[in-house]
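Cross-check.
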Amino acid sequence: MVRAPAPPRGRGAAPGQRAALAAAPRAPAAGPGAGPGRGGRAGGEYPWPWSINRWLPGRPATAVPVAARIAFAADLARCFAGLHVSAPPSAPANVFRGVPLADRAVAVRERLAGDGFPAPLREVWESALEAPPWTGAPVWLHADPHPANLLVGADGRLAGLIDFGDLTSGDPATDLAAAWMVFDAPGRAAFRAALSELVPLDEATWQRARGWALSIGSAVAVGSADNPEMAAIAAHALAQVLLPA
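Predicted model, tokenized:
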């Protein structure tokens, strides 16, 4: 499969992604082709780096009814537990993901002040900001944990984690936003329970994760007017974060 990132985010991204993927741990259920592929150089017809990656079988989790996603909740927990190990200083920087949640405060507040966002979302955001920040070592992050980046097999189990274009390091709460972006309340409970058996996580981490779901979900919402699939992902995430934590 050819991956040709769209500019400007994609400018120079492919070589860095391949090098970072080579250094990052291979997470359980990330898929046999989740490692670095072969790269192509910028040229006249496509002036940005591109890459060729192995095709992974499965369908995106967006094609799975939300209630049925509980079937892969434990799989995703194991996947993130395997990925979230200490990252080296050379891990890619990403000013939008993995950073202290307070770094996103101004942008999210401005976004939520716009049309289409109910006032209770602002309360959720302020509550998330009150959580103590991550004080552990930066860990590897997928950093884009929405259902379109999850592949599900015919058996309903997680078959792959794809699109590492935001790969970075930092607060694991960024990836745990999947609890609200992917699942409903029963699925979220199953995901949290499975992950808690593998990794000790305090309530502050989950509080920040809820904030990350709101940060990512609101960003997707304002940029998905021409993409019904992404708009549905955003609407789901924003509805879920409004539910009791």
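The mean pLDDT is 87. The first strand starts at residue 2 and ends at 3. Passed to J.P. for a second look.
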